[in-house]
Amino acid sequence: MSFVEIVVVGAGIAGLSCARALAEGGARVRVLDRGRVVGGRLASRRVDGRYADIGAAYLVADDPAFVAQTESWHARGLARPWTDTLRVYPEGTDTRGPVRWAAPGGLRSLAADLADGLDVRLSTPVASVESVARGADAVVLAMPGPQALKLSPPPAIASAAAAQSWRPVIAAVLTYPARSWNGLRGAFVNDHPVLATVFDDGDRRGDAAPVLVAHSTAELASEHLDAPAEAGPVLAAAVGELLGITDSPRIETHRWTYAQPEKTSEAPYASDGRVWLCGDAFGRPRVQTAWLSGRAVADALLGG
Ligand SMILES: Cc1cc2nc3c(=O)[nH]c(=O)nc-3n(C[C@H](O)[C@H](O)[C@H](O)COP(=O)(O)OP(=O)(O)OC[C@H]3O[C@@H](n4cnc5c(N)ncnc54)[C@H](O)[C@@H]3O)c2cc1C
């Protein structure tokens, strides 16, 4: 099928994987994102001259197509296997799981790789589906449902989007004078009032910087959505207590209002006529799911 034009709204991993597959299939694609950089929640923020990963902490790849994508990043030095061992608190025991992949240049560099060569327009907020639909054969909304709902989508998209429910997270980048948490790569913190995870950013990035990234519980984030910086010292204190760190860190915070979907769909995407919705709410909420969801939309459009 040859398309006049497809508009993808959202340059996160779902939108970029969709756009890339469409472009490779011969379609003309324009990607619009309101952000100043690509990646969405695959996000790396510059703190003290280096990137810290403030959204997704790592990738897990177990779908064959995403394994191939990850291997392609690996072969080009963009991604590297990081660890299969993380700690679980309150027990404080190490537990083995799948290999977690990290990116030496920050995880956002993987989104930048997918965006390379595509027509991506940044700092371009889209107010409604209608405003971008004219002249387009399809409009793909690659974003959390609540964000898609703001664009007045057609009924089936609106109902799929409204069926999702999301939790917020506040991320804190904690920069210490020195590393003092020997042996910890990252931890899941269960049953804690404010802290959900903490990861060693210097270890996963491979530069040994004395930087930890903490993610809050949804409860703490909900209390501080209007003033996320206020959650920073709370997270720093919780990390210090958990890991026995006495140094005070420099703190940068970032708010994710729609961080993780609670209710997810079995289907790989939703569609209504020429409008499509994809993202990480279509499966287990993680980077691989978002990538696969975007690809599934592209396959449906190319095969249609
Ligand atoms: C704190 C946190 C920790 C996580 N940890 C992990 C992890 O360890 N492993 C893992 O696999 N996953 C993790 N995830 C989940 C992972 O980040 C997501 O699954 C994935 O990045 C989602 O990609 P997406 O493209 O679906 O959505 P997004 O990345 O949210 O992309 C949506 C894009 O749409 C744009 N947009 C929205 N509205 C508009 C509009 N009106 N106009 C223009 N553009 C718009 C946004 O700017 C954004 O760039 C984590 C997420 C968070 C927040």
Quick gist of this model?
The protein is of the alpha/beta class. It has helices at 13-24, 64-75, 108-115, 129-133, 145-149, 155-163, 201-205, 218-223, 231-243, 287-303, and strands spanning 6-9, 29-32, 44-47, 50-53, 80-89, 93-102, 119-121, 138-142, 165-175, 186-189, 195-200, 211-216, 250-263, 270-272, 275-278. Flavin-adenine dinucleotide (FAD) binds next to helix 1, strand 9, strand 13 and helix 10.
The fraction of residues assigned to DSSP E strands is 25-35%
- How many structurally independent domains? 2
Q: Please tell me how large the radius of gyration is.
A: 19 Å
Structural class: alpha/beta
Helix content: 25-40%
Shape: globular
What is the highest CATH level, the class of the largest domain? Alpha Beta
Order of helices and strands: EHEEEHEEHEHEHHEEEHEHHEEEH
Strands in their spatial order, largest beta sheet? 6-5-10-11-12-9-13
**Number of separate helices:** 10
Rounded mean pLDDT is 96
CATH architecture of the largest domain: Alpha-Beta Complex
Which molecules are bound in this entry? Answer: flavin-adenine dinucleotide
Low-confidence stretches: none
Biggest pleated sheet: 7 strands, mixed
